Amino acid sequence: MQHFDVAVIGSGSGNSLIDERFQDLQVALVERDETFGGTCLNRGCIPTKMFVIPADLAASVSEARRLGVDLEFKRADWPAIRDRIFGRIDPISAGGLDWRERSQNVTVFHGEARFVDPHTLAIGEDRISADQIVLATGSRPRPLAVDVPESLADRVHTSDTVMRIDELPRRVVILGGGFVAAEFAHVFASFGSEVTLINRSDVLLRGQDHEISTAFAEALGRRVNIRLNQVVSTIEEEEDGSVHLITVDRNGVEYDYFADLVLNATGRIRNSEALDLAAAGVDVRPDGQVMVDSTQRTNVAHIWALGDVSSDHLLKHVANAEMRTAAHNVLNPDDTIQTDHRYVPHAVFSEPQVAAVGATEQQLRDWGIPHVIARQRFGDVAYGWALEDQGHFVKLIADPRNWRLLGAHIMGPQASTLIQPLIQAMSFDLSVPDMSRGQYWIHPALPEVVENALLGLLAAYQPDEIEHPQAENF
Ligand SMILES: Cc1cc2nc3c(=O)[nH]c(=O)nc-3n(C[C@H](O)[C@H](O)[C@H](O)COP(=O)(O)OP(=O)(O)OC[C@H]3O[C@@H](n4cnc5c(N)ncnc54)[C@H](O)[C@@H]3O)c2cc1C
Ligand SMILES: NC(=O)c1ccc[n+]([C@@H]2O[C@H](COP(=O)([O-])OP(=O)(O)OC[C@H]3O[C@@H](n4cnc5c(N)ncnc54)[C@H](O)[C@@H]3O)[C@@H](O)[C@H]2O)c1
């Protein structure tokens, strides 16, 4: 049996963990998928955003018309877009594997790892042992709870497969109302498909500030048919080859939908069951989330975990941060560092974009934390005038006792970029007065919408007047 200093399971963030600091250690890297490099590179963040950019261009035609420019959308050449995207990504993945296989100190094992005992892994017929083991096995799409006829396998997809399809479907039904559903609804609708989004609950992008999720649903609803409070009960094939979905709402009423493609975007499950964690004594929650402390250590001292399999946040920037913590701690188990999960931001690359960091208004009310709220419309700053912006806004929430931001929520153009200075302010403990007046804000650039929202917070604060002051800059 081969023995290693470190064994890493999963080639996504797990592969990035093995940097030059490990060069004097013998490392095993195990990957069960034929594709090397994990979700973000091959079927997640990166290819989806590469579809979103052409979708943004296609969607801009209707925006242009409002500004007096007569553009025409002819068609999206799906095979060309797909081949361009994967023509770039697939070689990166293959090159990454090739480079790794040529690393002097790393042995790549192709197969599914499972524990035999706390220090031993089985990978097919192979058995390896390691002093320390890192679990970086990620997550996968949650399968539908209803049977899908085998004959429909090429028409009922998840995010793993949908980006590789051969042609743009005419009618798309998306099941789910989270990040994946929101981003693919934008892509397919912009490219000209007729999109119906069916969600089990009555909110899209649950977990966002209520004002954002309501405004987002309204905006997306202008381009996509949105059906809430319904779940699929049956999926069958029609004679003409289309997919027939029957859904049922809370009152037991049934609805029929017909599609050329169905995207199941109903959430993700963590890849932990194949690991046989019981054999190693690693604690895992009933939903499959491996339990770790802030040093990324499991309850078994030499076993660490990071990323989707153990994190509360299924986001690549969080997996990367946890990977950096785990890398340090594997190398310095007696001098560990912790992952900072205080201000984890996220962005949804749909149309409109949504981005947020920190607490929502409803959370602060529930927690009884005093707060001031300011809302600033994009349409009321100079760049927003140029955009003729309608309906997009920044919502900031701060604690008036120390003027620190508690939450920032943005829906609109470049939200994923505009949120960054707010993340920075929260991470580096910058106060609202310092942030708003302690620096120049380029005029007439879009970040003035953030500047004005910050000033709105200060203006909203009328001590003794009301418990939760709000600046209605609308
Ligand atoms: C469609 C989509 C879009 C996304 N967009 C974004 C985005 O814009 N921004 C963002 O921050 N996040 C995004 N995410 C989330 C992001 O992709 C994940 O949070 C991130 O990739 C998780 O990384 P990881 O290293 O934990 O797992 P992964 O990258 O999934 O790597 C885990 C690897 O482990 C392997 N594995 C699993 N079990 C075993 C086993 N027993 N033995 C051997 N190998 C095993 C898997 O095959 C996989 O290759 C997106 C996700 C999806 C699905
Ligand atoms: N831009 C990004 O950062 C990005 C993009 C994509 C994914 N991700 C990550 O991946 C995670 C998973 O995304 P996701 O969208 O798959 O999951 P999600 O958990 O965000 O959303 C799942 C949605 O499906 C709905 N749903 C569940 N069961 C259903 C059913 N039977 N019928 C209809 N609707 C049903 C839920 O109500 C919910 O709205 C996200 O939470 C996010 O962390 C991030």
Automatic annotation (TrEMBL):
Binding sites annotated in the UniProt record for NAD(+): G176, G177, G178, F179, V180, A181, A182, E183, G267
Q: Name one GO biological process term.
A: 2-oxoglutarate metabolic process
Q: How is the cofactor bound?
A: Binds 1 FAD per subunit.
Give the residues the record marks as binding FAD. K49, T137, G138, S139, D308
Q: Which residues are annotated as active site?
A: H443
EC numbers:
1.8.1.15
Question: InterPro entries, from UniProt?
Answer: Class-I_Pyr_Nuc-Dis_Oxidored (IPR050151), FAD/NAD-bd_sf (IPR036188), FAD/NAD-binding_dom (IPR023753), FAD/NAD-linked_Rdtase_dimer_sf (IPR016156), Pyr_nuc-diS_OxRdtase (IPR001100), Pyr_nucl-diS_OxRdtase_dimer (IPR004099), Pyr_OxRdtase_I_AS (IPR012999)
Disulfide bonding pattern of the chain: C40-C45
Q: Where is the Pyridine nucleotide-disulphide oxidoreductase dimerisation domain?
A: 344-453
What does this protein need as cofactor? FAD
Q: Tell me the enzyme class.
A: oxidoreductase
Molecular function via GO:
dihydrolipoyl dehydrogenase (NADH) activity; flavin adenine dinucleotide binding; mycothione reductase [NAD(P)H] activity
Which PROSITE patterns does the entry mention? PYRIDINE_REDOX_1
Q: Where is the FAD/NAD(P)-binding domain?
A: 4-322
> Which keywords appear in this protein's UniProt record, sorted alphabetically?
Disulfide bond, FAD, Flavoprotein, NAD, Nucleotide-binding, Oxidoreductase, Redox-active center
Which family does this protein fall into? Answer: Belongs to the class-I pyridine nucleotide-disulfide oxidoreductase family.
Q: What is this protein called?
A: Mycothione reductase
Organism, by scientific name, is Tessaracoccus rhinocerotis
